[in-house]
């Protein structure tokens, strides 16, 4: 797996064409959209899109790829986390582009576009101008401005009124979150993490932003009242092995274990009139830390998709501080009120879910129940004097 990943990166780098040139293309030059299927890593789960220009007369065969970024960028990881990393348009040799996905065993489809030589020339000039150092960089946005959404915009800019893009309605009730879920296993850490990190802004009607969405859109689009795609070619088949996930490694298993542990420990604490401080500290510290991360993504980054994230209600950031009070033998006088407040926040979370303000991962039901059990116990414990710690 890791060897394939390194070979992929190497081939993508070797295939880069860093120089600008004036092309003398022939009438046989063809332009096509390349759509790549999902990979195994999270950053490749949603596929990829690029644009190919091929002239058999001059042996020109290059790919224009809007999905490139530079790992050597100063403060790369901080910029990536905060949504401030510039992506860029790069040119690659088609042979290296295709070979890299062959190594990853991902499918690749090619849609050859019905463009005349004048339109091809105009498109190539636009791309070459866009590839200039002063023009090639852009602020990447996963939903609204990515390597895939840029391609229909390029076609609209160059072809103008001659192009009729299909609206590509993804469905009246289909949201951006739904489109993401179509590419991920429900009981997976990647799906759980995405639902945790992304806010209510993605729970609105979605527009085509994934490679497969734009692939379908182009299939139904027209140029001069004719289908813009006149040939659809399968370049590579998907040969990835089927991964049978071990249930013990899934979030459903571990969150179920969490609920059982919280319920059992709380039951015995209640029976013995004791309080397991290690459990209280762990629950408050972890939920508080998650809450701080959610607030960071919400307020301290440029990511639009992480705004207005009501996971911050149950993953309550102040819990991170309260966790240290939970280590004391005697609960603070205010802890009962605090626990009732956090219980109320769990109810608000469920209510927002019920009225579709935000869709949460179904797996958080286990977390909400576990927290509710412990908060109720702590509220009662704090209100009763003489309970031994």
**Structural class by secondary-structure content:** alpha+beta
Tell me the helix content.
40-55%
Series of H and E elements: HEEEEHEHEHEHEHHHEEEHHHHHH
Spans where pLDDT lies below 50 across 5 or more residues: 1-11
Helical stretch tally: 14
* Average of pLDDT: 89
* End-to-end C-alpha gap: 50 Å
Principal-axes geometry comes out as elongated
Strand content: 5-15%
Most strands sheet: 8 strands, antiparallel
Structure description:
- The protein has 389 residues and is α+β, with helices and mostly antiparallel strands.
- 45% of the residues lie in helices and 15% in strands.
- It is built from 14 helices and eleven strands.
- Helix 1 runs antiparallel to helix 3.
- The two termini are 50 Å apart.
Task: Summarize the entry for a quick read.
The protein has 389 residues and is α+β, with helices and mostly antiparallel strands. The protein contains 14 helices and 11 strands.
Write the SSE topology.
Blueprint: H1 2-14, E1 16-17, E2 30-36, E3 48-55, E4 60-68, H2 76-82, E5 86-93, H3 94-103, E6 108-113, H4 117-130, E7 137-139, H5 150-159, E8 163-164, H6 176-181, H7 189-197, H8 211-219, E9 222-223, E10 226-227, E11 229-236, H9 251-272, H10 277-299, H11 311-314, H12 319-325, H13 335-354, H14 364-383
Antiparallel strand pairs: 1-5, 2-3, 2-6, 3-4, 4-5, 5-7, 6-11, 8-9, 9-10
């Amino acid at each position: 797996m890791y060897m394939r990943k390194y070979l992929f990166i190497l081939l993508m780098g070797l295939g880069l064409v860093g120089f600008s040139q004036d092309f003398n293309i022939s009438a046989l030059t063809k332009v096509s959209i390349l759509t790549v299927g999902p990979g195994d890593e999270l950053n490749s789960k949603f596929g990829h899109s690029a644009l190919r220009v091929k002239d058999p007369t001059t042996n020109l065969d290059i790919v224009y790829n809007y999905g490139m970024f530079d790992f050597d960028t100063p403060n790369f990881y901080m910029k990536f986390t905060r949504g401030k990393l510039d992506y860029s348009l790069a040119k690659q040799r088609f042979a290296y582009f295709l070979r890299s996905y062959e190594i990853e065993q991902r499918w690749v489809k090619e849609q050859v576009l019905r463009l005349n030589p004048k339109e091809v020339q105009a498109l190539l000039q636009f791309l070459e101008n866009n590839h200039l150092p002063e023009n090639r960089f852009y602020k990447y946005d996963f939903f609204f401005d990515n390597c895939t959404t840029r391609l229909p915009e390029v076609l609209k800019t160059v072809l103008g009124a001659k192009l009729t893009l299909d609206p590509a309605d993804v469905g009246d009730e289909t949201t951006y979150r739904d489109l993401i879920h179509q590419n991920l296993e429900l009981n997976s850490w990647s799906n759980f993490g995405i639902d945790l990190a992304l806010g209510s802004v993605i729970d609105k009607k979605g527009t085509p932003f994934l490679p497969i969405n734009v692939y379908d859109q182009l299939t139904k689009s027209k140029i001069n009242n004719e289908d813009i795609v006149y040939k659809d070619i399968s370049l590579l088949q998907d040969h990835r092995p089927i991964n049978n996930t071990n249930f013990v490694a899934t979030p459903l298993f571990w969150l179920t274990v969490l609920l059982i542990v919280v319920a059992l420990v709380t039951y015995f604490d209640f029976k013995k009139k004791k309080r397991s401080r290690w459990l209280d500290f762990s629950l408050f510290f972890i939920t508080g830390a998650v809450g701080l991360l959610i607030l960071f993504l919400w307020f301290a980054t440029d990511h639009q998709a992480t705004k207005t994230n009501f996971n911050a209600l149950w993953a309550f950031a102040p819990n991170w501080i309260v966790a240290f009070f939970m280590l004391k033998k005697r609960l603070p006088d205010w802890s009962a009120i605090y626990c009732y407040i956090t219980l109320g926040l769990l109810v608000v979370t469920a209510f927002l879910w019920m009225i579709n303000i935000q869709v949460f991962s179904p797996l958080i039901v286990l977390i909400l129940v576990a927290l509710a059990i412990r908060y109720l116990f702590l509220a009662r414990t704090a209100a009763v004097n003489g309970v031994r710690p």
